[in-house]
Write a structure and sequence with these properties.
The structure holds 2 protein chains of 2 kinds. By secondary structure, chain A is of the alpha/beta class. Chain A contains 6 helices and 10 strands, in the order βααβαβαβαβββββαβ. In chain A, a hairpin with a 4-residue loop joins β5 and β6. The N and C termini of chain A lie far apart (49 Å). Chain B is built from 16 helices and 11 strands. Chain B has a single domain, classed as Alpha-Beta Barrel (TIM Barrel). The longest helix of chain B is centred in the middle third of the chain and has 24 residues, at 143-166. The radius of gyration of chain B is 21 Å and the shape is globular. In chain B, β1, α1 and β2 form a beta-alpha-beta unit. Classes of the chains: A alpha/beta, B alpha/beta. The interface between A and B is large, with 68 and 74 residues.
Chain lengths: 231, 422
């Protein structure tokens, strides 16, 4: 049974103050978060709020097992958002998802995660080939025709950040992994007792999801010129 | 007595050299693990470095097939650096052409709060490559428009931070941005507001164009300068200080970049430079050089004086930073170098290249500071984490022995930097 908790913006601000007090304070906070839940949903359900991807990055850096799911803030550009989530997914063992109230935005993010598959990286230091660039694509999104990437870094396409639609009703669909009624998620309101958590797992495993199913279509981003002409 | 230095380290992924990702003994996937950033953070802090800085472009600026660069989102990577350290500053490039000032202000205040007021924002204007349409542009908006937007962006951003500080409504009406937000909807928690003024990100600027320099004088608290000739650097620093004084502001700290290859001896450093540099793609340095100057490479005479060739063939590519172009051209002219000789110095980048021993490096640093050309330096290692470790092992002891490493104590990085200004 996955233990979910939502951390509202005021509590997140309190976490920021604690994190800013020094390493010992951060270690204690991280231990509390790891013990409190399997998945933390970050942010208020409405209102502008601070950016929660920044909080997600800070909390992932001080925890070892809990999965962190920031609610999309107001105005953040999908490319910047997707790039941040892709970075956090790589750095922190896939322990990140993203939640929002727009299925079309979540689908765009999910498509952007497919612009550069992690297994396209060759990393051959002898031949000097870092990545198979034929697999880096600009995706096509029906709702956002001008946005296509590619992102600046790869994503494990079998284990993409989980996309969570915050809605009282609805069902999973391509680009939306999970539907939650945000109001039904318990809210973090007290300091919890420390206890032994389970081992770290990625977001998809924490949600009981299987491998991601790629669904984006795209065209090669670097076709038509020699590699040296594209440096 | 030379005043103590402010030292920043640019640890943007593999390093400044195009061969960095292929450096012997390094894992080509190393930058994707949090341990890479934790290790860099600890190494830098233990070495007495004051900040880690990540340069960035908002999209893939080039094909990573043969030279990966600036892949990770810097704020996300720096969160790990901050978590691992107590005093080390974290500075990130974020472009004004690909963000919203209110959204960014909220985001950066959050980053800064979690770090303990150790965050700096390097304001750049770039948007290149495939990212251009992603951010709503039909084509590269061009330098003038990018700077016009940046100037208003910084004004709007600062207005928002002021509104948070004063707990007032935020109103901005301009050519690029317009907003009216009631104070209850600012979206910054009172607990964060209470951390002002320290939690307000340090403003850093790096533009070398006249408009960029004016923006720096008007808004920056530190400047990452591209300089290769001490006398020119001193003139530019004096100009910046004068511009700031005319605006009634303390002068930004001037931190020229040094593309650094250091070893315990001159010979060791030279071997190291060759070892990494020869792993770069064939023709890469020349390609970067011609792109930066807007030169048709087929017309370039490699054995002619660089100054003449640059004057004869150079264009003004909008996306290429003026500061780097001026700095490299100045070095070629000052040394009367051929194009071929200048290419080695350029090495694919644009900052001052130093290959040598720690003692000679520290002599140069001291000389520049004494001449008024610098308040410190922004170091760019040829490869990471190797170059960073070499600095810690060889250069830090020399700096400490000479009393040149400033110690910020327990005050937050932002406050320490602000108080270090002239």
């Amino acid at each position: 049974m996955t233990r979910l908790l939502r951390v509202d913006d005021a509590t997140l601000a309190g976490f920021a103050v604690r994190a800013g007090e020094g390493r010992a304070s951060r270690e204690l906070l991280g231990a509390e978060l790891d013990a409190a839940a399997d998945v933390l949903l970050l942010g208020d359900l409405d209102g502008p709020g601070p950016d929660r991807t920044a909080a997600a990055g800070a909390l992932l850096a001080i925890t070892r097992r809990v999965v962190v799911v920031p609610i999309i803030g107001e105005r953040q550009h999908p490319i910047n958002l997707a790039r941040t989530l892709a970075t956090l997914s790589n750095l922190h063992a896939r322990r990140v998802g993203v939640a929002g109230s727009s299925a079309t935005v979540l689908a765009l993010l999910s498509r952007l995660f497919e612009t550069w598959p992690l297994d396209a990286i060759v990393g051959d230091t002898e031949t000097g080939v870092y990545v198979d660039d034929t697999r880096i694509v600009r995706i096509a999104d029906p709702a956002f025709p001008s946005i296509g990437g590619p992102l600046t870094l790869p994503v494990d396409v079998d284990d993409k950040p989980v996309t969570v639609l915050l809605s009282p009703s609805g069902s999973a669909e391509p680009g939306v992994d999970v539907v939650w009624d945000g109001a039904a998620v318990p809210v973090w309101d007290t300091v919890v007792a420390l206890g032994a958590g389970t081992d770290a797992v990625g977001a998809r495993a924490a949600f009981g999801l299987g491998p991601s199913a790629p669904f984006a279509t795209g065209t090669p981003a670097f076709a038509g010129a020699g590699r040296l002409d594209q440096v | 007595m030379t005043r103590p230095l402010v030292i920043g380290a640019n640890v943007y992924d593999y390093g400044t050299d195009a061969g960095a990702w292929r450096a012997p003994g390094e894992d080509p996937l190393r930058i994707f693990g949090a341990d890479f950033w934790r290790d860099a953070a600890r190494t830098a802090e233990d070495a007495g470095i004051h900040a880690i800085f990540l340069a960035d472009t908002p999209g893939l600026a080039s094909n990573p097939a043969i030279r990966p660069s600036r892949l990770l989102e810097p704020l996300a990577a720096l969160a790990t650096v901050a978590a691992e350290t107590e005093h080390l500053g974290i500075i990130s490039t974020v472009s004004s052409s690909t963000n919203d000032p209110v959204e960014l202000a909220r985001r950066l205040l959050t980053v800064s709060a979690f770090s303990g007021s150790r965050f700096g924002w390097n304001v750049v204007t770039g948007v290149t490559g495939p990212a251009v349409p992603d951010f709503g542009y039909d084509s590269d908006p061009g330098r003038e428009e990018r700077y016009a937007r940046a100037e208003e962006f910084v004004e709007a951003y600062s207005g928002f931070v002021d509104a948070v500080r004063d707990d007032t409504d935020y109103v901005h009406e301009g050519e690029y941005f317009g907003d009216s937000i009631r104070r209850h909807d600012l979206g910054v928690d009172p607990a964060i507001r209470a951390l002002l003024p320290d939690v307000a990100p340090l403003i850093v600027q790096a533009g070398g164009s006249p408009r960029g320099r004016q923006l720096a004088a008007a808004s920056a608290e530190a400047v990452f300068a591209a300089e290769t000739v001490k006398e020119t650097a001193a003139e530019n620093a004096a100009d910046l200080r004068q511009r700031a004084a005319e605006l009634g502001r303390p002068a930004p700290l001037v931190l020229p970049g040094i593309h650094l290859v250091v070893g315990s001896t001159e010979e060791e450093a030279e071997r190291r430079f060759e070892l990494v540099h020869e792993r770069g793609p064939d023709g890469y340095v020349l390609k970067r050089f011609t792109a930066m100057f807007g030169i048709d490479g087929s017309r370039l005479d490699l054995d002619a004086p660089a100054e003449d060739e640059i004057r004869r063939l150079s264009g003004d590519p909008s996306a290429a930073p003026i500061g780097f172009r001026k700095a490299i051209a100045a070095y070629g002219a000052a040394g009367n170098l051929t194009v071929r000789e200048l290419l080695r110095y350029f090495a694919g980048f644009g900052h001052q290249l130093f290959v040598g021993s720690p003692e000679r490096l520290v002599d140069i640093m001291t000389d520049w500071v004494d001449a008024g050309a610098a308040d410190g330096f922004n170091l760019l290692f040829d490869t990471n984490p190797w170059g960073l470790r070499e600095f810690a092992e060889h250069v830090t002891p020399v700096l400490r022995k000479r009393g040149l490493l400033a110690a910020p104590g327990d005050q937050p990085f932002t406050r320490w930097m602000r108080e270090a200004r002239r």
